[in-house]
Structures are given as C-alpha cells and as structure tokens.
Design goal:
- The structure is a homodimer.
- The N and C termini of chain A lie far apart (60 Å).
- Chain A is of the alpha/beta class.
- The first copy, chain A, is built from 8 helices and 8 strands.
- The first copy, chain A, has an 8-stranded mixed β-sheet, covered by helices on one side.
- In chain A, strand 4 (62-65), helix 3 (69-78) and strand 5 form a beta-alpha-beta unit.
- Chain A has 2 domains: 3-156, Rossmann fold (3-Layer(aba) Sandwich); 161-255, ProC-like, C-terminal domain (N-(1-d-carboxylethyl)-l-norvaline Dehydrogenase, domain 2), CATH 1.10.1040.
- Chains A and B meet through helix 5, helix 6, helix 7 and helix 8 of A and helix 5, helix 6, helix 7 and helix 8 of B.
Chain lengths: 259, 259
Amino acid sequence: MKTTLIGSGNIAWHLGKALQRAGHEIVAVYSLTAAHREELAEVLPPAKAVDSLDLRATGAELFVIAVPDAAIASVAATVQVPNGAMIVHTSGSQPLAVLQGIAGARPGVFYPLQTFSKFKPVDFSTIPILLEAEDEQTLQALQEVASTISKEVHQVDSHKRKQLHLAAVFACNFTNHLLGISRQLLQEAALPDTLLQPLIQETIAKAMQSHPFQVQTGPAVRHDQNVIEEHLRLLQDQPLYQQVYQLLTQSIKDHSPKQ
Amino acid sequence: MKTTLIGSGNIAWHLGKALQRAGHEIVAVYSLTAAHREELAEVLPPAKAVDSLDLRATGAELFVIAVPDAAIASVAATVQVPNGAMIVHTSGSQPLAVLQGIAGARPGVFYPLQTFSKFKPVDFSTIPILLEAEDEQTLQALQEVASTISKEVHQVDSHKRKQLHLAAVFACNFTNHLLGISRQLLQEAALPDTLLQPLIQETIAKAMQSHPFQVQTGPAVRHDQNVIEEHLRLLQDQPLYQQVYQLLTQSIKDHSPKQ
C-alpha cells in the first residue's frame, strides 16, 4: 500500500518503519519543519519530503496523520488527497468525525496503542492497533494493512476508544505520576532511586496476571490506621501528596470493606 | 547459620528456601497452625515443626520473625531465645524497637523488599535486603547472612525504612489500585482486559529509565482541558474515581506549569 506520512514525530517514525518493513512503500513525508520531513524521508526510501498539504500528486492510496492531537483538526481543514484515498489519524483521543470534512476522502482511525520513544526500537507485532472507519470496505482495507504489522488488530469505535483512553490515563499517566512521587520521596530520604524497582516490577507483573483489586496489598487494604496516620504525618509538608494519599487510601478501603 | 523461622507464610517460605539454598540450616519452624508449621518444616529438612515460642532448645543462633506486622509485638512479648541469639523481624513498616524487650536477645531487622506469592519462585539475588541492628557486631553478622542470598544488601535505619515504606505505598499499592480502576473501566466498556498491557509495560519501563516526572504524558501534562473535561463526564456516575482523576490531574499539572 503506497502511503504518505503527515507528521514526523515518534509515531510517524516508528509506524513508517514498521510499514516499510512489512513491504509497504512510503512515498512521501509531510512536516511543517523542513529538517524533520527531510530526516524522516531519508530513512524511509523512496519517500520524498514534501512541504505542502496538497498531497494529490504523491501517488499514495493511504494518508496517515501522525501529528499532535491538537493539530489534527487544522491538518484536516487544509489537506487535499486524491479522490477515494484513505486518510487516517493515529490518535486515541480524537473521534473519527474530526476527519469527516476532507473532500473525496475515506476517513479512518489507525491507532497504535503504545507510547513511542524516537530511538528505542519497538516490536510492532505485539502492539494493539485499533481501527475505525465509516464503511466496511475501508475498514477491511485498513484491517489488511494493520495485520501486516501487528497480530493484535481490533475494531473499536470512537466512543469506546474514548473509554479506552480514559482507562489508559489511569493505568499509565497516573501510575507514572505516582512513580514520580515515589522517586521524589526516596530522594528526599537519601535512599537509592532504584531500591524499589524489583518490587515495582513484581507488583505490575502480579497486577497483569490477576485482577489488581484481588491482589491489593498495603496499609489501606488492611485498614491499618496506625500506619496510615504515620504516613500522613510524614507527608505533612507536602499537602498535595497528603491529599493523594488520603484519597487513594479511601478508594482502596471502599473496595475492601473491613472484615 | 542455624536458623529458626517464626511464621509460615510467604516470606517465611521463600526466605527459608533461600537461606537453605545458601547453605544455612533451618533447625525449626514455629507457627500457630499445626498444618502450616508441619508443611513448611517438611520442605526445609532437617527443620522440626515446633508449637511453643519457648525456642531456647532449638539450637539456632538466628531467629527470623516472619509474621503479619500486627502480630510482631505479641510474638516479641512471648518468645524466648537463648542468651545472645539474634532475633530479627522482616517487616518494612515496624521499627527495630518492637523487638527490644526480648530478654537476652540481640534484636535486628532483616527486611526483604519484595512481595511474595507462595508458589511463584523468586530470584532472591536481586531482592534488596535492608538491615538494621543496635550494634556493629550484630549488623555485621546479619550482613554476612544477607549477602549469601542477595547482592543488594543495605543498612537502613527505622526512620528511613518508614520513608521507604511510604514511597512503596505510592509506587506499588497505589499504582496497583489505579491498574484495578483501569481494568474495571475496560470491562465496563466491554474491551479486552489485556488491551492496555503493552502500553503499561512500556510506561513502567520508561519510568524506570528516566525520572518519571520527565517522561510524563497524557492530557494533564499537556493541560488539555477539553479531554480532561470529557473524561470527567465519562466518570460522572463514579464520583470517587472522578475525584481521583481530578486530584491526580491537578498534581500532574502542578509539576508541569503551562508553557
């Protein structure tokens, strides 16, 4: 499938490489910044760097918008693609509808459910790809492309994708923040940053194997008020962390009524 | 080192096995429940199951209390050990002082910083063991034992261990709870339980390599108010989760002032 990439960030980079490895041809790379589009086009031969969103002459059948969420609408308002071409975005939080105004295009969503770092290789085959389209034919074409790079292809509509994104905020963004608070507390106590890593890894591994609510440990689930109060005292100079501690303790307690 | 285990739960089980593998002799296992002490003694030959906390005749030089935190004080009030014997507890949240009343004993803390499941083998060599004792001689004896089973032995006093425990509550207990909320949200949306697992694993891996605050992603760090408000609407029937969302979003925003 001849493909044009719109965007040159981490998703464009990794998805472009995965598509190319699977035998698809990247014909063009668009990015606002000349250096970025040229750098990415160079690693995806025979891709050309292009500086206009009039992409009708690129010869592609699939156009992949991989730009920050906030920029998708403005790309959609400007981009021109050949009649009947597929144009997809790669966002977990944006609806399919954001692409509906593109003249002559068959809009879709092609959302790889993973976080990417520029220089860290990824095994795309295990990354879920969530698809959405307006008609069965487009969906099937996207399905064919997606299944050349991943074994985990799902059809998920915009509303469910929104619910999934919410679940991901809890599981990833919020857990990352808690790991940051924890790291800061270790530093304040002059303890090694890495001390908790084996415990964190085992905790996550357990939470994957069981329902996390069933393997909950710690003072909250034991309703151990002495320890809880001592922890709150240790946090007395950090009122926001103290609030976080109180609320999450309350939520854990509510899930595990005292015997 | 001839050792007696007090307790027959997951820590006693795994620590007993690790000590035995390293060449130490487990001479006795005490537990309130006959079936439990006999089961553990059987897998740790030549250990005998004993039913009294008068352990003066077990011939051990080291006594390891591996019982629930709330039971340590009552064990300490009852146990009898030979003059000059070392007696340690294995708890992250209890001070050394809880063992100070044991007549003739040299108290200590021998805290393996990991969560254990009964039938899951563990590689003890990577598990940090945190030690504390009242005198240098005891500390050194514990250090010698600990370094036969782990490459990560640290001396950490009671106050620092308390701060470490607090950090662990954030990094492990609270993250586990958030993973539980996320799993529940997936189930409510009729999405596969495992869909977020690659993303969670990559998020944790990144948080280990960098300071988590520096690799924070998601709507909060972008101050993306549209997405945040939509998520709060999705949670309108779950007021406690809505509060958790709001507070963690606030905490992330406070760490990443708007540009």
